[in-house]
Write a structure and sequence with these properties.
By secondary structure, this protein is of the alpha+beta class. A six-stranded antiparallel β-sheet has the order 3-4-5-6-10-9, covered by helices on one side. Strands 1-2 form a two-stranded antiparallel sheet. Strand 4 and strand 5 form a beta hairpin.
Length: 195
């Protein structure tokens, strides 16, 4: 996402000159960061690209390097909520959820460090930065335009072809990674890295 044309994005109107979305018509969910959010005085967030059990991925724009990026926010919905009134901070649920949140966030940051060391691997998106802010963690990755695994499955008639599923898992399995980078998080039901 680049700054919006028309008003440079300051008033929340105009069209993103990277993704073509109109700021006035895009309505994020209440737990998403609003478009125009800037992290680390560098990363401008746009719309949501995807969301899963461990987080939310946004399209973004690196204002220093002036290129598109993907920013993944650690946001496990079962452990936290968003402070939508007072800012962008994450509110962590109390009790066991707080302990789980803290433990899993550390695993998330460990995964980011390991993935950052694996740059230039064909099957792994390059990590450009990672940091903590808003009581959560973020991973900044290269943005690769294309079709998601979910869209690919849907286009194939939702059959979930075994080979396609294996390829989807293998893209993240990193047999190489597992041998060289122990401790990577794994998704349930897939022999791949948690992403």
């Amino acid at each position: 996402m680049k700054p919006l044309s028309g008003d440079d994005g300051k008033n929340g109107s105009g069209t993103c000159i990277s993704c073509g979305k109109d700021a006035a018509s895009y309505k994020p969910s209440s737990h998403h960061l609003p478009p125009g959010t800037i992290l680390k005085d560098r990363y401008l967030l746009g719309g949501v690209l995807g969301e899963g059990g461990y987080g939310i991925t946004y399209i973004g724009y690196d204002r220093l390097l002036q290129n598109r990026i993907a920013v993944k926010e650690y946001f496990p919905i079962e452990f936290c909520t968003r402070d939508t009134i007072g800012g962008n901070s994450v509110n962590i649920l109390s009790g066991i959820s707080a302990k789980n949140y803290a433990r899993e966030k550390q695993k998330y940051l460990t995964e980011a460090r390991l993935l950052a060391k694996m740059e230039k691997q064909r099957v792994i998106v390059n990590v450009r930065d990672y940091f903590e802010d808003n009581r959560t963690a973020y991973i900044v990755m290269e943005y690769i335009q294309g079709i998601t695994f979910t869209e690919l499955t849907r286009k194939s008639g939702g059959k979930g072809d075994g080979l396609m599923r294996r390829k989807g898992c293998l893209a993240y399995s990193g047999v190489y990674a597992e041998k060289r980078m122990p401790g990577l998080m794994r998704r349930k039901g897939c022999q791949g890295l948690h992403h």
